[in-house]
Amino acid sequence: MPHKKLDFTINDYNLIQNKKDWEKALKIISLEPKIAIDIEGNSLYEYPGEVCLIQISVRGYDFLLDPLANYSFSELGELLSDKKTLKIIHASEYDLKMLWSQYKWSVTNLFDTMLAGKLLGCKQLGLVSLLKNFLNVQHDKKFQKSNWKHRPLSHQQLSYAYRDSHYLIPLSEVLQKHLEKNGLWEEAQEIFNDFAKDIILEEVEQKTIQFYKTFRSKLLPEINMKVLQELFFYRDDLGKSLHILPNKLISNKCLFNLAKKIPNTMDELNQIPGTTSIPHQVKKQKLLEIIQEAKDKKESILLPKTNDNPRINNSVTILMNWRKKKSITRNIDSDAILPKNKVFLLAIYAPKTLTELEKLNILGPVRLKLYGEEIVEIFKKTNHFNEPQ
Question: Is the pLDDT of residue 132 over 60?
Answer without folding.
Answer: yes
